[in-house]
Fold this sequence. Notes:
The chain is an alpha/beta fold.
Amino acid sequence: MNRSPKRPPMTASAGSEGYRLSKNLEYLKPSETVSINQETQRRRAAGEDVIDLSAGEPDFDTPKLVSEAGIRAIQQGKTRYPPNAGILDLRAAVARHLSLLSGGRPVNADHVVVSTGAKQSLFNACMTLFGPGDRVLIPSPAWVSYPQMVRLARAEPVMVAGDIEWSLKVDVDALNAAWDHRVAGLILCSPVNPTGAVYSRAEIKAIAEWTREKNVWLLADEIYRRIHYGSGPAPSVLDLPDEFLTRVVVVYGASKAYAMTGWRIGVAVAPLPIAKTMAALQTHVTSGACHPAQWAAAAAFGDERVEASVAEMVEAFRQRRDLVVGHFREHLSGVEFIEPLGAFYFFFRVDGYCNDELATAAAFCERLMAERGVALVPGDAFGDPRWVRLSYAASEKDLTRALERITQFARKRESVRAGR
């Protein structure tokens, strides 16, 4: 009698209605920031008055010159498959742009790979550089997708806690404490999402020296580099001499400084063999990024007239940063926070308001949403359940209303803890 081969049982361990999923996804979790944003939209659609301070994107329109370049590309029929690593005009514009940001240092367009957003650039780099048995150091708190990307590469993410006395940044001593011979990489974000902290040039140099000595890849996420409240752009690994860059991949993009999140254009700058391998990987995943969007990004990086829009947006973020910091200092003076020097995030501590009923930042944020209609992202998502991230990529009117609601909620929690 012919018998069908016995099939393995379908399990629900992956939460997929009993279907067995690939072990590649064993540790995969949905993006908490995306989930919160979707819940906010759902509540708004249901008629609730919700102020969304969870979004990690500018609330400005794409500069007109940039949008017009994208429209023009469509009208000119530039809608076919683009070159896989990106159109030359965009790669050359990125190279010139990054060169100017770092004092005229040479940046070779052949080392630039264009992808569908900086998130894909990071993913490509992780898949290219890391694999089974590797460990990758990630300063914590950290953006939600870093450890997920490392695990998808079948490597092990190692969270390295930042020092509160140093704006939750890490130093070489902390990296040394986490290092062993399996460590293959370090992912460093500056300006930092979620804290808004910025690594100085001296700090970046010390870390780059450490990665070189340890023969470790440095994956530098500089997507927020232009949104910096000091002089000029934030410090970068590209400010360092060439000898520091032999094992460095820099990730950049158009989404933040040019308000182009939906255009999905990210770039990576890497040593030529790595750039070629990342591009080869991309041929099997997405191929080239959206063709008209690449022409729009070429205008963003290459047209000097766009810089006025960038400067205007950064100044608006600076004013909002000052509004939020000033409010906390005046009305919530007992709350610890990280002074934001870049990006558009404010990271503040809430464990002082927690108790057995409200044990973590996630519970704090859920109650704040339910009672006051303000959407924030709990620090649980970034690896520290004591903190909360507030995005001030919102109008001053909405920020003012939200800050009043947060203050009312916090004072109510104080009363509960005091037993009143």
